[in-house]
Please model this.
Amino acid sequence: MKPDLRLKPQKLNTRARTVGPNLNYWYPVGWSDKLKPGQVQNQILWEQEIAVYRGMNGDVYAIENTCLHKGVALSKGEVQGNELVCPYHGWRFNGQGQCVGIPYLGDDEPLPKKCLHRYPCRERYNLIWVFPGDPEQSETMDIPDVPEYDDPNWLIVEIPAHFKVHFSMVNENPLDVFHGHLHRDLQGWYNPVLVSMENDEDSIRAEYEVTFRNSWLPKILGLTQSKEQEVKKIIGVGYHYPHCRNNMPGKSNYYFMRQPQGPMSTQSYSLLCLKIRLPVWLVGLIRKPLPRVLWKFLIKPFLDQDIDVMESEQANFHRNPDRRQVEINPVIAAAQLLTVKKYDQYINSQKQRSDDSKGQFQG
Model:
């Protein structure tokens, strides 16, 4: 049975604007090259403060950002060797969250046995990834695949952004190709038509046909030729929970990785992969300077417009969450259902885990 592609009014699923994320997934918390050996950052994943630091051995660690002693943020301290030192009394913690030293205790005096929570973390695609949920599940869950990242024929543009909005709004934006109207003054796309859609338990995939005018932007991206007045292209979008992607086959792949920080705060780390039809040696020469130029003059103007309207949407929802809103795009309606479903799955898994623990204790 094919999904109904008709654009028909339906009530916005406002619960999608209030639920939390399913934490049993990998989430990015920063760019790898921004965290040097001996540095520490305070990163927030759905109101959990995490001290992310790089030891002098080059490895990255992520532990609860609260000292066992007085509750001071460890991110205010310093890295010594491969350990994190609290700024208040000098208590030292290793990357496993264990207290390994208190300066005013003798060598034969016992240290606290309680540990800070340790978060599994990995580095991939110049991003630091943290698993905030059940650590046991981190081994079975995959970080999103970006096959173009190490391919010399693709140019990678790193795109950071902060949105003062709920993560559901941020994720819906690249899925909603109908918002090309917003970017009309930037020579964006127009006349979008939803041509296909499919979904399963974990993802949504859809295709839109859009039209580009023959202007400087489509030419840069290789979408039009000099004699064409306009060209129609297919844009594919996907919500592979909890991250999104869109692409134009053979031209670009755009990966949107999100760090949901709280009900009205989302950090985004996106990778725009562009197929460059130039000799590999020339791509190597422009690999560093060209992304900065594309970011400043091509991508940021679009992103600024998106941020402005989404923050307006969030502000109005915050003032009146009961106000009736109408959605007509079935892709967005499906995304809202998936967001809610994944949160419910997480809550149910936590409840089951708690019940199992109680059963083992009573036994």
Summary: DSSP finds five helices and 19 strands in the chain.
